Amino acid sequence: MVLSKKQKLLISLAGILLVALLLVFSIKGKNSFKNRFLDAYDKTTSAISIEVQHDWLRFSDFAHGYDQSKPTKLGWVTDIHADRFKRRTVESGTLFPKSYSEYLPKVFDELRFQGITTVLATGDNVNSGDEGYSEELAKIAYRKNMQVLWVKGNHDSDASMRKLGLVGNNFYYAKDFGQTRVVVLDDSVQAYEAKSIDAAQFAWLKDTLATDKKVVVAMHVPIFPVTQEARVLSQDTELEKILHDSGNIGLVLSGHFHVKWNKQFDGLNFFGESALTRENELGGYGIIDLNKMSVQYLYTK
Known about the structure:
The chain has helices at residues 5-28, 33-52, 59-63, 100-113, 131-143, 158-163, 199-208, 237-246; strands spanning 73-77, 88-90, 93-95, 118-121, 147-150, 173-177, 180-184, 214-218, 249-254, 261-265, 268-272, 284-289, 294-299. With 301 residues, it is an alpha/beta fold. A hairpin with a 2-residue loop joins β6 and β7.
């Protein structure tokens, strides 16, 4: 994107304004410095973005294809279930779908303060496949300057995924970060014990795993039963074999269960994260260390 002289001037003025705000905050003291800085930064960059370009839907420019960026850590959220409902009770506990608008920006703020600007969202981004709520999620990510790798969950519709910026009819893709490749799968067609990944996606996966890079796999539904017993669901036996045989899988991440869990199985490391607005775990998120191939579980303040 080529910027006009006016746009370049606006960006320069934004930088000057941020320096001035930093000086003001330091004079007033350091209490709540982080929040004041981030709020001021959001307001400034939001104003600039309106002048520069409305491109928060251009996710495909970021996700589809490989690049040379080399972050060492990624953020991780799952099962946002964005919706208008204040409360939703499911088998795993109580969710507060409407609270996504409070907790997702907080998580993004905390990640960005740690220098993390890319997040994995492992499915059920919206609660009822609603395009409007997908659009709100995309706007939050844009305002917070956060790139998000969106995974399709069983509550997400094709239309809602396209509102998040994905294109076409296939919602699986890969993204390189230095010596790590993140592979996003679409296993969202969920009828337990029935095959949910078709031959075309399996063929693409085998080709994509043919790399010297270490691989992080992100999907929505785990390959295990909800009871987490040490057996692979019949629908996922082929998938598990492909992952095992590749020999380069560092982590396999998923959502769907709404709770934190981890398991070593057949030489692979599997992790699950709690739903963003689950009762007693509100604001739960993770940090993925790409060098150590590890997961840290955290809660927003």
